[in-house]
Write a structure and sequence with these properties.
38% helix, 2 domains, four-stranded mixed sheet, alpha/beta, 9 helices, single chain
């Protein structure tokens, strides 16, 4: 890899803009916008490895599975993750290929269906909290609990949903393949949705588990493993806010590692299901010696990399 290496963690909003634009064609068009920004980074000398979220897409796959359950087998959650990696990877790869070709850049692009190993005894398996799939009434939730062994919980008084564990990622199984492709100059799409969660059994064989991995933590692990110079996280906002959602809310341009750790410890700045895991992922990346992390929205990627916007996280 001749240039600087960036791991880009693409948020789900980069593929689904709103409730009116979430079908396959809408997501493909959104992927094209992301491809333009990726191509601009490549033109500026970056080598890139791209990770992406898959929460809404996995939800769609699960819903289709539920609706078809009277005629077809239901799809296990780990397979839903694999399905989404293939579909999203296809959209990203084809769009990036097309944009690079139009710009006269000869660079191969490939997606890797990626497994991420987690610990069998991760505490998250004892207290699953991540809601997935459709809402159910209490009777259906009870049936699923008894017949299928699901963990279920009431979700904000809107109904019942299945909840699964979100264990911490420990190892990217296809890491050697990803590194080899990147070293050969390939633009790699990998670790979709944080990776398909797998555990090793007593014999060392890997088995899929019904869990989800945080995409940003997965991309942070990837960035640390490849020694990335930059971890770029795209999300719905141009900058990170402190005291988010309060009258004291303020947008910040630069945060040091020590400040980020203090803000996390204070507990009031970052929403648990939104910015908090991103900042946690960045802290892990910087603590391991990472160069810089940037959080911004897709439309401002180029300006953020030029130091004109976004929130920049630095070791010191």
């Amino acid at each position: 890899m001749a240039g600087r290496l960036a791991v880009i963690a693409i948020g789900g909003n980069s593929l689904i803009k709103d409730k009116m634009h979430q079908n396959v064609r809408d997501q493909y068009v959104a992927a094209h916008e992301t491809a333009e920004h990726v191509a601009s980074m490549i033109q500026d000398g970056w080598d890139v490895i791209i990770g992406h979220g898959n929460g809404p897409q996995v939800g769609f796959i699960l819903r289709r599975s539920e609706l078809a359950a009277r005629e077809l087998h239901e799809i296990p959650l780990d397979v839903c993750g694999a399905d989404s990696q293939g579909a999203i990877g296809y959209a990203l790869v084809q769009n990036i290929q097309n944009v690079l070709r139009r710009r006269g850049i000869a660079k191969p692009v490939a997606a890797v269906v990626t497994q991420t190993e987690v610990a069998r005894d991760d505490p998250a398996f004892s207290s699953p909290t991540k809601p997935i799939g459709s809402f159910m009434d209490a009777a259906e939730a009870q049936r699923r609990r008894e017949q299928d062994g699901w963990d279920v919980a009431e979700d904000a008084h809107r109904g019942w949903r299945r909840v699964v564990a979100s264990p911490r990622p420990l190892r990217i199984v296809e890491m050697d393949a990803i590194q080899a492709l990147a070293a050969a100059g390939v633009v790699v799409v990998a670790v979709g949705g944080g990776g398909i969660p797998v555990v090793a059994n007593e014999d060392g064989d890997l088995l899929g588990v019904e869990a989800v991995i945080d995409k940003d933590l997965g991309c942070s692990l990837l960035a640390r493993a490849v020694g990335a110079d930059l971890l770029l996280i795209t999300t719905a906002v141009e900058r990170v806010a402190l005291d988010f959602g309060t009258p004291e809310e303020r947008w910040v341009e630069r945060i040091t590692l020590s400040e980020a750790k203090r803000y996390l410890a204070e507990g009031r700045h970052f929403a648990a299901g939104s910015m908090k895991p991103k900042v946690e992922a960045i802290v892990e990346y910087l603590e391991a010696g990472g160069g810089e992390a940037v959080v911004t929205d897709p439309a401002h990627v180029e300006q953020a990399l030029a130091g004109k916007t976004g929130t920049h996280f630095l070791r010191g």
